[in-house]
């Protein structure tokens, strides 16, 4: 049956307008993005098939271009649209942190970093650079690959912070394994960075280790 033949209360678009986006299932949200189905399959049923194939909505959204475009009902145009939507969501989260009081809450920072870093396929070490009022200047990716004492250079971090006139920084890196527990190497490099930043009067407010849907704060753990 075509979606146009469904009762208004069951159509994804009408349901969103009347009940809000949070009332829709993953398949219904995906169906709105797809807009149309394929021959013999409406958009909602196609969305269910895609979710079954990829295993979850997140897996579909983070699929490579080749994986995404090889699926029935998808293609390069849909891939481009999806990447644009995801980038807008990331920028929305970042802009929300530009508000003056954003960094009064560790939860705001945690939420942004999870959305920004958890799907990175490799380890990424980054900094949030802040002004004297702890407002965000920028998010700056710094090092890629295995993060240990040999691959993170405090002097590079200090130079970047000085060049961008940061008064404070928040460190962050992800664990692609999904486990956000800080390692001994994480603790060692954090102490080295804090010492280097202190020499130029730049505060390290926190260091977050980002896993799959969670982020551990060094400050909350008393590790700074």
UniProtKB/TrEMBL annotation:
GO molecular function, one term: metallopeptidase activity
PROSITE patterns, alphabetized: MPN, UPF0758
Gene3D superfamilies: 5' to 3' exonuclease, C-terminal subdomain, Cytidine Deaminase, domain 2
Keyword terms: Hydrolase, Metal-binding, Metalloprotease, Protease, Zinc
InterPro entries: MPN, RadC_JAB, RuvA_2-like, UPF0758, UPF0758_CS, UPF0758_N
Any one GO biological process: proteolysis
Domain of life, per lineage: Bacteria
Limits of the MPN domain: 102-224
Homology family: Belongs to the UPF0758 family.
Protein name per UniProt: DNA repair protein RadC
Source species of the chain: Bowmanella dokdonensis
Gene behind the chain: radC
